[in-house]
């Protein structure tokens, strides 16, 4: 199959960026750069692995799961259906974490998933340490491998726990920042999402009936882990700003909202009210 033939199959399958995805798969499988691939656009590639990868993508399985790795910030991450795929939108949250930590700061990452937020923050801040909390054992294993792969495992502690419950008794430390990209999609909306999202773990997407159950728990219960003067950083849905502000005020916090490159609300920053 040529690059053009694969792109055409992807286009017929309704994939949004058919040529880009075809280029990624060929580059990954045959260890050829995108530039070199364009120069050999009529080359006929053939292997069972390629056929399998193309079929999986035509079935709308995410490209990231097919190639098994994905970039976030300046690091590369192992990804699998055990965790949410790292997205560029979340880099705004990670950047706020990196810039908001004091020297020698400590933070806790709730619903860590692949570990991309905590790992990339630690990679950028060699003075910092982190605790990562995740419910599912396979996801914790993936996050640990990503920490090791990116050279920050010695500054990370992993705890398997449910963020929808009170912090476990073993958590006695206090943190300068609580950070989280929790599930925040309303349950009723999940069935309407693009086909690729059906391959991602629903538990990493489902924020309950109104999409806010994790925010209420984090701000209401987990905030007791903050050091004096600490703050909470949350990724939120583009239409959740007012509701997050209400939750913040109800628990004694001021809330400021940060916009992403597209002008959409993306990050909520909560600090204790004076």
Quick synopsis:
The protein has 274 residues and is of the alpha/beta class. It has helices spanning 3-12, 18-30, 34-39, 48-58, 63-67, 91-100, 116-124, 137-149, 213-220, 241-250; strands spanning 69-72, 75-78, 106-110, 129-134, 156-160, 175-180, 226-235, 253-259, 265-272. Strand 6, helix 9 (213-220) and strand 7 form a beta-alpha-beta unit.
What's the topology here?
Blueprint (H helix, E strand, L loop, with lengths): L2 H10 L5 H13 L3 H6 L8 H11 L4 H5 L1 E4 L2 E4 L12 H10 L5 E5 L5 H9 L4 E6 L2 H13 L6 E5 L14 E6 L32 H8 L5 E10 L5 H10 L2 E7 L5 E8 L2
Parallel strand pairs: 3-4, 3-6, 4-5, 6-7
Antiparallel strand pairs: 1-2, 7-9, 8-9
Helix pairs in contact: 1-2, 2-4, 6-7
The coarse overall form would be globular
Number of helices: 10
Gyration radius, in Å: 20 Å
CATH domain fold name of the largest domain: Rossmann fold
Q: Residue-averaged pLDDT, rounded?
A: 95
Question: Mind summarizing the main beta sheet?
Answer: 7 strands, mixed
Lateral strand order in the biggest sheet: 5-4-3-6-7-9-8
Binned, the helix content reads: 25-40%
What does this 3D model show about the protein?
The protein is an alpha/beta fold and 274 residues long. The protein folds into 2 domains: 3-59; 81-272, Rossmann fold, CATH 3.40.50.150. Helices cover 35% and strands 20% of the residues. It has 10 helices and 9 strands. The mean pLDDT is 95.
